[in-house]
Amino acid sequence: MVVALRSSLPLSGEHVRHIIRQSLTETVRAIAPSLGPNGRGVIYDVGMAQAGMAMSGCTIAKLVVGEEGAETIAPRILLEAMNGIRRDLGDGAIRLACITNAIYQSASLSVSRGGNPGQISRALKDTGVLAMQQLANLRSVMPAVTQIARVASGDSEIAAALGAIGEHIMSPGTIEVKEGEKPGLELLQHSGFCLDICPDIAGISPTEPRVCIEMDNVYLVVINEVISDLGPMAPVLNAFVQNNKSLVIIARGFVGQAAAALIENRGKYCLNILGLVPEASGLHALDLLEDVCVASGATLIGETTGIDLTAIQPAMLGHARHIIVDKNHCVLTDPTEVPAAIKLRQTSLLKEAEQHRYLALDRERLQRRAARLNGYWAELKISGLNPWETVQRMDDARAAIAVVQAAGQRGVVAGGGKALARVAVWLGQLDNVRKPAEQAALQAVIAGCNAIQDQLSANSKQDEGEWRDDIVDPFSITQTLFQRAISVAATLLTIEVLV
Q: Is the pTM of this model over 0.90?
């Protein structure tokens, strides 16, 4: 492989491998001390006589990896792989760095002794397949949520909160980690379908106290338009006035006469009528309006469906036994849902989320929408004593959620690098490896398998045999990050010229 640089002279052969070995070593030396429960962060200057603190491997890597020069090629490739692991798995970026470095250091030294880089690169991938097959043999069922969450986050309070959520934690998007208003951790669990709304609620006058609004036996009209005049809806509104029933209109917006009429109906005539607007805009707002229709049994009104406001019929209204509206949310309790429609909608959303798996924000938004259709969602609000602690605890919580979900899907293996160390022992006992390239690859993969346990022991100043037996890692995360580490190392091994 040839990599282009802004340099007048090309670099090749052993000079290139030396640069890659050295630059990887320096990068991982900065990242690896943050691995594990005894990991340490990095304090750095953010300017204006202020300091920042980085605890995650990706953040530290961004601080130390340069943007130009031969010595930045390997670190930049590694950083991209680390960001991919964090995006796709939510955990494991530091382990990826340690494993990649160990594999490359061993394999490149074999090349320096006369080995063929292309052959060793291919053999690395083949040996990696054997290693992961053996790792699968070491798999066991997932332990209690609290146990694995405590190991993943290093935080008993976060682990207890996730344990309290129960089986709902297994659905991606069910839990939203947010910054809290006061120091500490707060878990809020909600039943019902939730819609994020704009804080300005149509029908509430500026002088009315902004408190939580609750309504019983509520009917819903869902409209994909900005409403400026309630006149076309007069027959529907009159029916609710006459029968003293509660009505919530969910639309893209309320302006002019429509907004004033809603305030008058609620304030002057004491009618239970509200207008709500989704927090999202554009196509995302339409998506949420369609979700409300699926959750409540309503029919979407507007140009999208060809149904005019004047054509609204009682059968087009949705229904919920109870509605709670606060500043940012509307929660429908016991909505008149159609299970088949809910299932179809969730399947479609999750399929789309998989298609957007490399776009974290889009993927998480789709997963959250699918989860809310289940009728349960939770907020985990976290705030530390300072901004550093807040960011770190929120990252820890997200990592713990990802680890628990991965463990529930495909089981676990011994953590703290133990499972991979056992794979290394098994690989060392193979007696059918004869070709030099295969032997070099075998030694490199063994080095990679031992890298995590060695680094954890170095970080804790603790003997590897003293790690607790209850520490586990998700099998799928361990498998994926090891496969990607081999891929990165194999790619770096084929770089022969820097131009």
A: no
**Residue 29: strand, helix, or coil:** helix
Place of tokens 């498998």: 479
φ, ψ of residue 213 to 5 degrees: the values are -105, 130
413 CB neighbour count, 10 Å cutoff: 25
Round to whole Å and give the CA distance between 491 and 214: 59
- The terminus-to-terminus CA distance of the chain in angstroms comes to 11
- 184 pLDDT above the threshold of 50: yes
Residue 112 pLDDT greater than 50, yes or no: yes
CA dist., res. 250 & res. 248, Å (int) = 6
pLDDT, the chain, mean: 88
The CA distance from 266 to 254, in Å, is 15
Nearest to 402 by CA among 174, 193, 178: 174
Q: 474 and 170 in contact (C-beta within 8 Å)?
A: no
Nearest alpha carbon to residue 130 among 434, 447, 423: 423
Q: Per-residue pLDDT for 465 more than 50?
A: no
Alpha helix locations (H) across 356-435? 360-372, 387-410, 418-428
Give the integer Cα–Cα distance in Å for 305 and 325.
27
43 pairs with which residues across the strands? 53
Domains of the chain plus CATH, in order, are 2-140+412-498 (1.10.560.10), 142-187+378-408 (3.30.260.10), 195-337 (3.50.7.10)
For residue 242, give every residue at least 6 positions away whose Cβ sits within 8 Å of its Cβ, in sequence order, or none. none
Consecutive H or E run containing 335: strand 329-335
Contacts 24+ apart (CB under 8 A), 296-301: 296/193, 296/220, 296/222, 296/320, 296/332, 296/335, 296/336, 296/337, 297/335, 297/336, 297/337, 297/338, 298/220, 298/221, 298/222, 299/222, 300/222, 300/223, 300/224, 301/221, 301/222, 301/223, 301/224, 301/225
DSSP conformational letter for 278: B
Q: Which of the 8 DSSP states describes residue 211? A: -
